[in-house]
TrEMBL record:
Record bears the keyword RNA-binding: no
Signal peptide (residue range): 1-23
Family: Belongs to the glycosyl hydrolase 28 family.
PANTHER family with a match to the protein in the record: PTHR31375
Location of the Rhamnogalacturonase A/B/Epimerase-like pectate lyase domain: 48-94
Gene Ontology process terms (BP): carbohydrate metabolic process; cell wall organization
Name under which the protein is recorded: Rhamnogalacturonase A/B/Epimerase-like pectate lyase domain-containing protein
Gene3D superfamilies for this protein: Single-stranded right-handed beta-helix, Pectin lyase-like
Alphabetized InterPro entries for the sequence: Glyco_hydro_28 (IPR000743), PbH1 (IPR006626), Pectin_lyas_fold (IPR012334), Pectin_lyase_fold/virulence (IPR011050), RHGA/B-epi-like_pectate_lyase (IPR024535)
Positions annotated as active site in the UniProt record: H203
Keywords associated with the record: Cell wall, Cell wall biogenesis/degradation, Glycosidase, Hydrolase, Secreted, Signal
Localization in the cell: Secreted, Cell wall
Length: 357
C-alpha cells in the first residue's frame, strides 16, 4: 500500500431524482438501500432538493462531498415523497487526507477475507474500488485464481490484492490493473506464492510497506514468479519506512522469471520509503532485509536506473543475489545502470545493467 494523494472519485451523472425515501429513514451515504433511482421528469413533489442549491459545482475540480451529504441529510429528515436532483455534470466526491495526514481515515475495501481457513476464490472481478480491491488478513491456506481487477491508473491507494498476517497463500493466473500496487505483501506473512500475474497499470508487485507500526510481524517464504509488469511505475519493489518504531525482518524471498515491459523501476529496494509530498529526515529503517533472490528478471526499463538497491544504513541488507538479470533501456539509446546503498549484492550470470561499482 502507498498513501500518495487524496482519493478522487469522479461521478458522471445524467439528470435523475431519488424518490420514495420513507419517513424517518436514515442513511450514511449515497448508496442507501432506501433510495430508488428514477428518471427526472420536471414534476416537483412536496420536497425537492437540488445538490447545486447546497453548493455543488459539478466542475470535476471542486470537492462536492459536503453538498451531497447536506442534500441527502435534508432529504432523510423530510416526510412524504422526496426528490433529490443531481443535474448533469462531473462531480468530485469522497476525498480523504492521506496525502498530508499520517493517521488519515481510510476508505472501504471492496472485499475483505478475515481469519479464513482453506478458502478458494476463483473467477471474480473487482472494478473501481475506493481503496483496496481485495484484502486478506489472518488467513491460512488461501487460493485465488482467474481474478480480474480494474481501476484507473491515477486512482490512489487502490491496491489490487493486499495480504497481511497470513500464511499458505497462493494467487495465480490473474489480470490486475489499478492505480497502486497490483499485489502488496504486508507484515506478518509467510509462505506466499504469486505466479502468472499480469500487472498494469499500477505500481507493480510490492513487499511492504513495512516498518510503519510497532510490533509488526516478519515476512518470509515469499515467491513471485512468471509474472509480467506492463507500463508500471515499479516492477518488483521492497519498501520499508525510515525511523521504524520497532524491529522486524523480511527474509527468504525469491523473485524469478518475471518480465518487465516499459517499467520505470524494474527492480527496487527502498528502505527510506515516504509516500507523502515531503518527510522530515529521521532515523534509519529497522527492518532487516536478507536472503533475497532476483533471478531471470528481463525486459525494458523506462528509466536509466533499472536496478536501485537502497538499503538501511542502520541495518544494511545481507545476502542479496542477482542472477541472470537482463534489462535494456526502452528507448534503446544507451545502457541502463545500477545504484546501491548500504548493500553488497552478489551477482551470478548475466548482469545488464552492470553491477554497482
Amino acid at each position: 500500500m502507498s498513501l500518495d494523494i487524496p482519493f478522487k472519485l469522479l461521478l458522471f451523472f445524467s439528470s435523475f431524482s431519488f424518490t420514495g425515501v420513507p419517513a424517518g429513514a436514515t442513511t450514511a451515504g449515497l448508496g442507501s438501500q432506501h433510495a430508488q433511482l428514477l428518471p427526472y421528469n420536471n414534476q416537483r413533489t412536496s420536497h425537492f432538493f437540488n445538490v447545486k442549491t447546497f453548493g455543488a459545482q459539478a466542475d470535476g475540480l471542486t470537492d462536492d462531498t459536503k453538498a451531497f451529504l447536506s442534500a441527502w441529510n435534508k432529504a432523510c429528515q423530510a416526510t412524504g415523497e422526496v426528490d433529490i436532483m443531481i443535474p448533469k455534470g462531473t462531480y468530485l466526491v469522497g476525498h480523504n487526507s492521506c496525502s498530508t495526514d499520517f493517521n488519515c481515515k481510510l476508505l472501504p475495501t471492496n472485499v475483505k477475507f478475515l481469519a479464513m481457513n482453506r478458502t478458494i476464490v476463483r473467477g471474480i472481478t473487482s472494478v473501481n474500488s475506493k481503496f483496496f480491491h481485495m484484502a486478506l488478513v489472518e488467513c491460512k491456506n488461501f487460493k485465488g485464481s482467474k481474478i480480474k481487477i480494474s481501476a484507473p491508473a491515477d486512482s490512489p491507494n487502490t491496491d489490487g490484492i493486499h495480504i497481511q498476517r497470513s500464511s499458505g497463500v497462493y494467487f495465480s493466473r490473474s489480470l490486475i490493473g489499478t492505480g497502486d500496487d497490483c499485489i502488496s505483501i504486508g507484515q506478518g506473512n509467510s509462505q506466499v506464492t504469486i505466479t502468472s500475474i499480469s500487472c498494469g497499470p499500477g505500481h507493480g508487485i510490492s513487499v511492504g510497506s513495512l516498518g510503519r507500526y510497532k510490533d509488526e510481524g516478519d515476512v518470509s517464504g515469499l515467491v513471485v514468479r512468471d509474472c509480467t509488469m506492463i507500463g508500471t511505475s515499479n516492477g518488483i519493489r521492497i519498501k520499508t519506512w525510515a525511523n521504524s518504531p520497532g524491529r522486524s525482518a523480511a527474509t527468504n524471498m525469491t523473485f524469478e522469471n518475471n518480465n518487465m515491459e516499459n517499467v520505470t523501476n524494474p527492480i527496487i529496494i527502498d528502505q527510506a520509503y515516504c509516500p507523502f509530498a515531503s518527510c522530515t529526515p529521521m532515523g534509519p529503517s529497522q527492518v532487516k532485509l536478507s536472503d533475497i533472490y532476483f533471478k531471470k528478471i528481463k525486459g525494458t526499463s523506462l528509466s536509466a536506473v533499472a536496478v536501485a538497491l537502497e538499503c538501511s544504513k542502520g541495518i544494511p541488507c545481507q545476502d542479496i543475489y542477482l542472477e541472470d538479470v537482463h534489462l535494456e533501456l526502452a528507448t534503446g539509446e544507451k545502457q541502463v545502470t545500477s545504484t546501491c546503498k548500504n548493500v553488497r549484492a552478489k551477482y551470478i550470470g548475466t548482469q545488464i545493467p552492470p553491477p554497482c561499482a
